[in-house]
């Protein structure tokens, strides 16, 4: 199951698109016509008024240039701690896991120019709530010049049999990232070579493990800053990623985003 999930992640990391409306592909459309010339002739003979086939048959999805891209600054409130950011507060209307009560509400700041990405159904956990056996992606945001962030959730039972376990109950920072790393990178994670730093942070009663990773072969980006915590029935991992071109100018921004994350 894990290998299938990682394979699915690989495909979505290479094809994520901003939230948009898409038209039905021709093979799924009730107006889809077989390609044989005889079928098409029969159709044309029975038609009194002929319309262009492209009017009846959506052969392709709209090009990316026609997708509606909305910057988060147009609908999210300004952050109270820094006017250069807006605040995203996840609620039950945002993800299947939040609606099912499997994930506690979380929040983080974003630059106002970032855009939310669509999550494929198989990766969102929508198909398996409320009893998912594998990690899923909660939300994902991106800016082409700065990088991307995502929230990855894992059922607690995948890491421990203890109900309502804390991070300390589960194990070390290395154990957490070792279990969830492939779902962060989209392929693999070599702890010996790619995990640069770990640290532990306390916010109130909540413990967070922090990570700095350099992952040259990751589909998400070669530079990653991450933060993990456990609450209720899930472990939540928040990851900010950038490629080599984005990293020099965006690392301070990505660090500020990760710093702001809390459950």
From TrEMBL:
BP-aspect Gene Ontology terms: photosynthesis
Any one cellular-component term (Gene Ontology): photosystem II oxygen evolving complex
Native source species: Deinandra increscens subsp. villosa
Domain of life: Eukaryota
Disordered as annotated region, ranges: 1-34
Organismal lineage: Eukaryota, Viridiplantae, Streptophyta, Embryophyta, Tracheophyta
GO MF terms held by the record: calcium ion binding
PANTHER family to which the protein is assigned, alphabetical: PSBP DOMAIN-CONTAINING PROTEIN 6, CHLOROPLASTIC, PTHR31407
InterPro entries: Mog1/PsbP_a/b/a-sand, PsbP_C
Occurrences of domain PsbP C-terminal (ranges): 105-263
One Pfam short name: PsbP
Protein name (Swiss-Prot/TrEMBL): PsbP C-terminal domain-containing protein
């Amino acid at each position: 199951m894990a290998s299938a999930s990682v394979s699915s992640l690989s495909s979505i990391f290479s094809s994520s698109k901003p939230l948009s409306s898409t038209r039905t592909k021709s093979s799924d459309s009730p107006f889809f016509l077989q390609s044989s010339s005889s079928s098409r002739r029969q159709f044309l003979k029975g038609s009194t008024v002929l319309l262009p086939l492209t009017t009846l048959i959506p052969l392709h999805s709209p090009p990316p240039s026609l997708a509606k891209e909305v910057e988060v600054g147009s609908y999210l409130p300004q952050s109270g701690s820094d006017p250069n950011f807006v605040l995203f507060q996840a609620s039950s209307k945002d993800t299947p896991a939040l609606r099912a009560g499997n994930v506690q509400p979380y929040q983080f700041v974003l630059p106002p120019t970032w855009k939310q990405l669509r999550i494929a159904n198989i990766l969102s956990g929508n198909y398996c709530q409320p009893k998912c056996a594998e990690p899923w992606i909660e939300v994902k945001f991106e800016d082409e010049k700065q990088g991307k962030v995502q929230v990855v959730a894992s059922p607690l039972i995948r890491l421990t049999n203890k109900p309502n376990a804390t991070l300390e109950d589960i194990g070390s920072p290395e154990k957490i990232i070792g279990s969830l790393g492939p779902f962060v990178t989209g392929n693999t994670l070599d702890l010996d070579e790619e995990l640069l730093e770990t640290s532990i942070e306390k916010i109130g009663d909540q413990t967070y493990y922090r990570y700095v990773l350099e992952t040259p072969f990751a589909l998400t980006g070669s530079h990653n800053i991450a933060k993990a915590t456990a609450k209720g029935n899930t472990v939540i991992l928040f990851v900010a990623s950038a490629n080599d071109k984005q990293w020099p100018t965006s690392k301070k921004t990505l660090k500020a985003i990760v710093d702001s994350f809390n459950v």
